[in-house]
């Protein structure tokens, strides 16, 4: 399985527009972070997790010409606002499968009603999707792989993480209960959000992310959904424990 980090930034991305924070002014390409998303590829399949406002640029940068579907974690704008840009995939492939909690599918229908119109009323040129509801404790069959939804909390908002075999992707987590942690037993690679050093009401900070990694005990962990307030990539990475890394845009890993 190959994982490509399409974006590793928090909701505003890095640099933040108009910011003169040193991390926003950094010349290191690893300090430039698009909105958070990953491409997961195995056998002949490729799936994207989330579809934020940088989706178009991410697909171009990663050279993606076909996708088998998009799995959504939750409805926040930094995870959903690129949905219109599935058009080139739709024109070549037809309706694009999307997987999300029923609540998130409802939000997408409100924000992009024209995408969900069928038949002769559909605007020519509008993209189309095939919606699949994600239900906790019901693995999703993608080819031969059973993807396991992981139910986590983003302050008071429910969010899904996803386990793809030996790999799990959790973003926008603040808390996760023991039952959901057990679904991650034995994973080799974990991706989890770590916003900044200071606590935040709806995101793990670095210390909390490291505690969660220690509880799950994967072989390797990568941090994502990073704010400029976490610091320079190079400096933060040096302080991380063994087996824990800061993800950066365009990083590819094999699991
Ligand atoms: Zn987010």
From the structure above, extract its key features.
seven-stranded mixed sheet, binds zinc ion, alpha/beta, single chain, 255 residues
Summarize the topology.
Blueprint: E1 2-7, H1 22-25, E2 37-42, E3 45-49, H2 55-62, E4 69-71, H3 77-80, H4 87-93, E5 96-100, H5 102-111, E6 129-133, E7 140-142, E8 145-154, E9 157-164, E10 167-170, H6 178-182, E11 189-193, H7 206-216, E12 220-224, H8 233-238, E13 244-246, E14 252-254
Parallel strand pairs: 3-4, 4-5, 5-6, 10-11, 11-12, 12-13
Antiparallel strand pairs: 1-2, 1-14, 2-3, 7-8, 8-9, 9-10
The protein binds zinc ion.
Zinc ion binds next to α3.
3D structure, described in words:
The structure is a single chain. With 255 residues, the protein is an alpha/beta fold. Helices cover 22% and strands 28% of the residues. The chain is built from eight helices and 14 strands. The strands form two sheets. It has a seven-stranded mixed sheet. A hairpin with a 2-residue loop joins strand 2 (37-42) and strand 3 (45-49). The longest helix is centred in the last third of the chain and has 11 residues, at 206-216. It is globular, with a radius of gyration of 18 Å. Zinc ion is lined by residues 11, 36, 76, 78-79, 172, 225. Zinc ion binds next to helix 3.
Based on the structure, what is the oligomeric state of the protein chains?
A: single chain
| Strand line-up in the sheet with most strands | 6-5-4-3-2-1-14
**What gap, in angstroms, lies between the N and C termini?**
5 Å
Small molecules bound: zinc ion
Strand content: 25-35%
Tally of DSSP helical segments:
8
How many extended strands?
14
Helix content range = 10-25%
Structural class: alpha/beta
Major beta-sheet overview:
7 strands, mixed
Shape: globular
Low-confidence stretches: none
Overall pLDDT confidence: 97
Question: What's the helix-strand series?
Answer: EHEEHEHHEHEEEEEHEHEHEE
